[in-house]
Amino acid sequence: MEKNTIAVINGPNLNLLGSREPQVYGSKGFDDFLPELKLLYPHISYHQSNVEGEIINLLHDAAKNCRAVILNPGGYAHTSVAIADAIGAIDIPVVEVHISNVYAREEYRHTMITASKCAGIVTGMGLNGYKAALHYLITWADKK
After folding, report:
1. Three-state DSSP class for 136?
2. Domain extents in the chain
3. Splitting the chain (144 residues) into consecutive groups of 10 residues, what average pLDDT does each group show?
4. Residues 6 or more apart whose Cβ sits within 8 Å of residue 86
5. Do 33 and 97 contact (CB within 8 A), yes or no?
6. CA geometry: angle at 83 spanning 81 and 89, to 5°?
7. Fold classified for 6-143
8. DSSP characters for the chain?
9. Tens of pLDDT along 87-113?
10. What tens digit of pLDDT does each residue of 111-120 get?
11. Which of 98, 132, 130, 128 is nearest to 7 (CA)?
């Protein structure tokens, strides 16, 4: 990966996009969406893991090799102090994305531990939330 690369890291169950609860997450899989994102910015590396420790390792690697991260931690957003600490330990901007509007869902989803360490958060815009995060990162994040 080159330092101009932006890493997209998706967490647990996001490998099931397109088939998992399409009324909440939509009917398009991430592999079908990724080319749209790369049209906007070709230097994207994509990773998905259902394992907390692997997500932490991906964040550490991104700090060495990338200019920024778009992170959808999935359910770990509400539970993982370890991922929050990993975000806080790296020196590149991280924008957290949630496909659904977490504030319109169950109350336990309203607390996002990981978001407190991020440069920003996008929620409820479907897969287009990744485009919004990307736009922020390539337009504004380097200027701060």
Report:
1. helix
2. 6-143
3. 87 82 69 96 97 99 97 95 98 95 72 93 95 94 57
4. 55, 56, 59, 60
5. no
6. 100
7. Rossmann fold (3.40.50)
8. --TT-EEEEE-TTGGGTTTS-HHHH-S--HHHHHHHHHHH-S-EEEEE-S-HHHHHHHHHHHHHH-SEEEEE-GGGGGT-HHHHHHHHHSSS-EEEEESS-GGGS-GGGG--TGGGGSSEEEESSTTHHHHHHHHHHHHTGGG-
9. 999 999 999 999 988 766 677 667 789
10. 789 999 999 9
11. 130
Map tokens 């090799």 to a residue.
Answer: 65
The residues assigned a catalytic role are 25, 98
Please give the structure tokens belonging to residue 13.
Answer: 């169950």
Structure tokens at 47: 């990773």
